[in-house]
């Protein structure tokens, strides 16, 4: 019966192991039943962009032999306090199911999820081959959970807690790594507020010869750095602690020698509270640096420029707006390999500018840095002319996020909306995948986006547009759109309902402080059974108000799992009988 | 556009920001969101009075804008600017738990001017009453007492220290209930 062209399943699985992209594997699995089966059993990695898009049971049935999972939880706007506490994104149901189904699990990467100590303890007990734990922007756990990981994961290579919120009970969790533990490659504890047991950390660093990446937390004072660096000269990626104590000549010269010993250093970050006089201590490694994150350092412009002038091979630069236009001019002339620039605001809540950072800085960089692909830029003024210049100079931009701090700010030269400027961005930058808008914008900018931004995958809109036509342009024009998040913009029912089918092709849609009515939410939910339409309202039961009342916040996402069971009291969804239901249940741990 | 227009007469029920008869939304008044309750346009009578005075008092703060993550906001202490005035009026978000409640809330201490406003907000958020504060007796007259964890990790009764000291030392809040609460303030 077997045709000469069919392979035994083991051979197919082996061939599939050479396919790395999930999209390729997905395509292969659709060819025929035996390919589907081969892929199913040989799939080793899964990426779940929305933890509510399928159930844990669904995952383990579909792919019984995973070694690596990556899961994302809360919507992006949770980063800015727009998602109330208790909304969801719990990891425990996943680890409970996986602890049984995947005894050989090696890697867990989570973003914006609620992770309990119990979940961390379960990881420690269930996966003898566990190697990588990345918790990005997560919360819900304490140093007790970390102690369980340290004590039990004998082969751990990576522990990365980037910007998670950790309840600090004790700094002694780090001493729970046994003396026999030597496999660490990467450790990022920069988010931990309290002091970690430093001698234990030093001993850990000493006995892990493969350690390549180490990010300390702010509580580690600069005096400790020289000894630490001397024990790990092989570091490629290093984050300092605080650098604020008075410059002492002995410490300074120790630091110079210690950094000089780290010949392989390519990434530097940290520098909390750094006194500029310390900066020359790192000059010896600057030539080799490809990533420099100074976004926690309040260093003034001339000192920043001096440092950056030492770094001609920089590819990524994150910095505060203290760099000013003059500093960015220096970047433009020195950092010819720059691919990513992020400029954060030092004082975002005061009305006037405290630094000389305008659109000119970014224009200079767009002119001088021909490889620039990714921009995040906070400033207080912009012009259409500048946007057009940037677009024409850098058609290779793939990510462009501009945040003009005051909402509705027009072109400061012409007082017009910035529609034309952003229009130029999408027109010239044909590979643009991510875009964030700001400033005064009418529906016209959305017409441009819908017409030109054909590769756009993620769009963030705030305080923009006039009518539903704006939203309609986005939803009907952006073919590759996956994530759309909108706040404080007058988009409403008509655009949403007209483009209901589009929503099933996207991962998620967030709308807050817009003009969507409760009735439209119910209708959309009835029309699209494979979408979860969740209304967030912290004030009242939306059922107690007329259907034409606007909802506070709306989160819509496609799901194979149906409405979720862990919604808190302020989240409403529509059940089968087409009346609204609120699911308030006990929180899973 | 689709055929839904005719069936549903969406035009008639269409809601927009702004006055009827205009296409443009009113820029500032409708957008301002009072961060203590994270509301946008709908406000109850109580908040209206609070809201009006707040708008008048300071530049209105918009929740989550500009879009900067808390870790970053808390990490960078801005310098005094050249004019010598304090630069930072960002939010101080602390978690609030109540014994017996299934989930926590978060509030911005900076959006209240003092203990009175804070307690009104907490009572409204959790639908409880907290008794009157007195230095001798703590909170008498109700089942609940508000406490907070300070920088040293100790649990303190809300109201004992000056408001400014409270906002800078408070790490999180907990509303105690029942006998535990009644024990506070009596001969402590």
UniProtKB/TrEMBL annotation, chain A:
Organism classification: Eukaryota, Viridiplantae, Streptophyta, Embryophyta, Tracheophyta
Question: Where does the source fall among the domains of life?
Answer: Eukaryota
Q: Which organism is it from?
A: Melastoma candidum
Can you name this protein?
Uncharacterized protein
TrEMBL record, chain B:
Give the superkingdom in one word: Eukaryota
Quote the protein name from its UniProt record. Answer: Uncharacterized protein
Q: Which organism is it from?
A: Melastoma candidum
């Amino acid at each position: 019966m077997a045709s000469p062209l069919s392979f035994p399943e083991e051979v197919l699985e082996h061939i599939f192991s050479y396919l790395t992209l999930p999209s390729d594997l997905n395509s292969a699995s659709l060819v025929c039943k035996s390919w589907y089966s081969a892929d199913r059993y040989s799939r080793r990695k899964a990426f779940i962009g929305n933890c509510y898009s399928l159930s844990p049971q669904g995952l383990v049935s579909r792919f019984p032999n995973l070694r690596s999972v990556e899961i994302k939880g809360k919507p992006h706007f949770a980063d800015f306090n727009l998602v109330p506490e208790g909304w969801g994104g719990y990891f425990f149901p996943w680890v409970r199911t996986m602890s049984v189904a995947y005894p050989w699990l090696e890697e867990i990467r989570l973003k914006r999820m609620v992770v309990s100590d119990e979940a961390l303890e379960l990881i420690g007990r269930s996966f003898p081959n566990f190697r990588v734990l990345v918790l990005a922007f997560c919360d819900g756990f304490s140093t007790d959970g970390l102690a369980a990981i340290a004590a039990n994961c004998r082969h751990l290579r990576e522990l990365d807690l980037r910007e998670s919120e950790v309840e600090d009970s004790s700094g002694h969790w780090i001493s729970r790594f046994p003396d026999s533990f030597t496999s660490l490659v990467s450790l990022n504890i920069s988010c931990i507020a309290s002091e970690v047991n430093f001698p234990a950390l030093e001993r850990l660093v000493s006995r892990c010869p493969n350690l390549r990446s180490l990010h300390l937390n702010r509580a580690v004072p600069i005096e400790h750095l020289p000894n630490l660096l001397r024990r790990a000269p092989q570091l490629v990626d290093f984050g300092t602690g605080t650098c604020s104590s008075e410059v002492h000549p002995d410490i300074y010269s120790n630091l110079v020698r210690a950094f000089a010993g780290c010949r392989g250093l390519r990434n530097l970050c940290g520098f909390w509270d750094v006194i500029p006089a310390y900066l020359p201590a790192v000059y010896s490694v600057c030539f080799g640096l490809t990533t420099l994150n100074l976004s926690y350092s309040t260093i003034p412009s001339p000192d920043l420029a001096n440092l950056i002038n030492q770094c001609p091979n920089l590819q990524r630069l994150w910095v505060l707006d203290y760099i000013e236009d003059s500093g960015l001019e220096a970047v433009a002339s020195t950092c010819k390999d720059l691919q990513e620039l992020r400029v954060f605001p030092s004082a975002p809540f005061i009305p006037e500018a405290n630094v000389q950072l305008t659109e000119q800085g970014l224009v200079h960089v767009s002119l001088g840095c021909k490889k620039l692909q990714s921009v995040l830029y906070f400033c207080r003024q912009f012009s259409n002319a500048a946007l057009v210049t940037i677009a024409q100079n850098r058609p290779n931009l793939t990510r462009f996020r501009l945040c003009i701090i005051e909402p509705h700010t027009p072109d400061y030269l012409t007082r017009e909306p910035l529609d034309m400027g952003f229009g130029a961005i999408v027109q010239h930058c044909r590979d643009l995948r991510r875009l964030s808008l700001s400033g005064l914008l009418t529906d016209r900018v959305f017409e441009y986006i819908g017409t030109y931004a054909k590769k756009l995958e993620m769009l963030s809109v705030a305080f923009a547009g006039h009518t539903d036509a704006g939203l309609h342009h986005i939803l009907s024009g952006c073919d590759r759109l996956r994530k759309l998040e909108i706040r404080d913009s007058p988009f409403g029912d008509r655009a949403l309902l007209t483009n209901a089918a589009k929503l099933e092709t996207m991962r998620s849609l967030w709308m807050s402080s817009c003009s969507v009515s409760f009735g439209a939410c119910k209708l959309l939910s009835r029309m699209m059974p494979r979408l979860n339409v969740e209304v967030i309202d912290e004030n009242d039961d939306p059922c107690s108000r007329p259907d034409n009342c606007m909802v506070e916040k709306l989160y819509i996402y496609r799901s194979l799992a149906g409405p979720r069971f862990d919604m808190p009291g302020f989240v409403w969804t529509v059940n089968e009988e087409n009346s609204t239901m609120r699911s308030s249940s006990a929180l899973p741990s | 556009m689709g055929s839904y227009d005719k069936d549903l007469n969406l035009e008639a029920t269409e809601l927009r920001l702004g006055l009827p008869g205009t296409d443009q939304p009113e820029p500032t008044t409708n957008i301002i969101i009072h961060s203590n309750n994270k509301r946008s346009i709908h406000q109850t009578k109580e908040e209206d009075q609070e809201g009006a005075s707040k708008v008048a008092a300071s530049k209105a703060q918009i929740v989550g804008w500009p879009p900067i993550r808390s870790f970053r906001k808390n990490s960078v202490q801005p310098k005094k600017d050249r004019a010598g005035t304090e630069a930072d009026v960002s939010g101080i978000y602390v978690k609030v738990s109540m014994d017996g409640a299934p989930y926590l809330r978060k509030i911005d201490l900076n959006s209240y001017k003092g203990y009175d406003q804070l307690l009104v907000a907490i009572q409204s958020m959790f639908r409880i009453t907290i008794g009157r504060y007195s230095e001798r007796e703590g909170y008498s007259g109700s089942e609940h007492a508000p406490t907070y964890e300070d920088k040293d990790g100790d649990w303190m009764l809300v109201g004992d220290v000056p408001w400014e000291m409270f906002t800078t030392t408070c790490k999180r809040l907990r509303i105690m209930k029942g006998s535990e609460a009644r024990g506070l303030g009596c001969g402590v």
